[in-house]
Amino acid sequence: MESRNRYPNESSTTKRNEQEQSLFSFVVPIYTKSMHRIVAQKGTEIKDFIQRKSRFSNVSKHRLINGVVLAGTFFILAGSALGAYHLQPHFEQFNIDRMGTAFGMFFLILSLVLLFYKLGFSLYQVYLYLRYKPIQSVSDEELPTCTIIVPAYNEGKLVWETLKSIANSDYPQEKLQLLAIDDGSKDDTWYWIQQAKNELGDRLTIFKQPENKGKRHALYKGFTIGTGDVFVTIDSDSIVKKDTLRNLVSPFVTQENCGAVAGNVRVLNNQKAMLPKMLNVSFVMSFEFVRSAESMLGSVLSTPGALAAYKREAVFNCLEEWINQTFMGQPSDIGEDRAMTNMILKQGYEVLFQRNAHVLTNVPEQYKGLYKMFIRWGRSNVRENIMMAKYVFTNFRTESKFGARLLFFNQSLNIIMTYPFLIFMLFFIITHPVLFLSSTLVSIFVLSSFPMLFYAKRYNFSESVWAYTYSVLYTFGLFWITPYAIATAGKRGWLTREISA
User: Which residues are paired to 239 by β-bridges?
Assistant: First the structure.
C-alpha cells in the first residue's frame, strides 16, 4: 500500500498531460485553419483594395491627361485665331501675289469652285438628313428568318460577350440561326466560342476553320450554310442592343427593293483612352449624319462589318463574284463589306441605313492600330470606287440613279484631288509656314464646329468637344493616309488583329 501511494500525483499528472495534449491537437488545427482563412480573406481584401486603388488611379490619370489634351487643343485653336487676325495683311499679300501668276489664278479659281461645290453638297446633305426617319420595327409575325454570322479571329473573350448579346436579342428564337466561325485564331478565341456553345446549346452553331483564310472566307462559309431569308453579319468585338436585330431587318419587310441595311455603329471602349473618345464623335457624324443622307438616296455606299444585313437573294446573285474578287491580279482580302454593298447596288437594289439599329464596337486605342485601320479602309475605298465606275453610269436601277451617281462623283473627287492638294500643302508649308499653320488651325476650328454641335445635339456637350482634337490629329497626324492608300491600293493584308510577339 505504501509503495502504491508513494507518488500519489503521478497518475493524475499524466492524465492531465494527455488531456492537454488531446486538447492541443484539437484546438491547434482549428486555430490554424481559422487564422489561414482570416489571413486569406484579409489578403484578398487588401488585394482588391490595391486593385481598386490602382483602377481609380488609372482613371484619374486618364482624366488628367484627357483634360490637358482638350485644354491644349482649345489653347492652340484660340491662339491660331488670334494669330490669323494679326496676320491678315500677310494673307492679303499672299493672295495678291498668287493672282499675279497664271498658275496661281488657276488654283484660286479651282479652289473657289471646289469650295462652293462642297458647300452646296453639305447643304444638300443637311436637307436629306432632316428628311430622314428610321423605319420602325415590324411585328414578330412579320419579322423574317435570319442567319446571323459572327466571324472571329484572335478576339479572345469578347467573342463570348458578342454571342451572348445576340442571344439576348428581342427576336423570335425560332426565326434566328446563329453561327460563330473561328477563322483559325492563334489565341483562346475558340475556347470562348465553345463556352458560348455550352451556355446557348442548340441556339448556337460553331465552326473552326483549319487555318486563317481571312474574314471574307469565314463569311462565305456562313452564307453557304445559312438558311435565313436575311443574312446579318456582326463583328466579333461588337455588342448589340436588345432591339438592334429587329430594327435592322424591318426595312426588308416594308421596302420591297431593299437589298442591304447598314447598322448604326458607336464606340464600345470609349471610357478612358483618347482615340476611342475622338472616334466616337467621328462615328456619330459618319453614321447618323452621312449615312442618313445616303439612305435617303437609297445608296449607302458601305455597310459596316460591325453590323449589316443583306437580302438572301441579293447575296447569292453575287456570292461567287464576291468570294473570287481580285484587284490588280491579286485576290481581295480586305473591304469585303464595301465590296458586297457595291455588288448589291449594282443589281439595282437600294441600300439603307437604320439609325435605330445600334451596335457598340471596339476601336484601336493606339496610333499604330488606328492608322492601320484607316489604311485598310482607304485602300478599299479606292478599289471600290474603281469598281463602281464600271456600272454607276449605266441603267443599273429602274428608280432614280441620281443619288448613287452624286455620291460616286463626290467620293471620286476626293480621291482625284488628294495629290494636287498635297502638293499645294507642301508648297505652302515651305514658302509660308506661319500662314499655313495659322490658316489650317482656323479652318479646323470652323469645320469641326459642325460635327461638335451635331454630337452635342444628339448626345451631350462634354464628349462633343473631342471633335476638335480629332480634327487636329487627323490633319497633322493622319493626313498621309489617303495618299499612301491610293499609292498602295493593290497591297493585300488586314494589318490588324495579329498577336504581338
Answer: 360
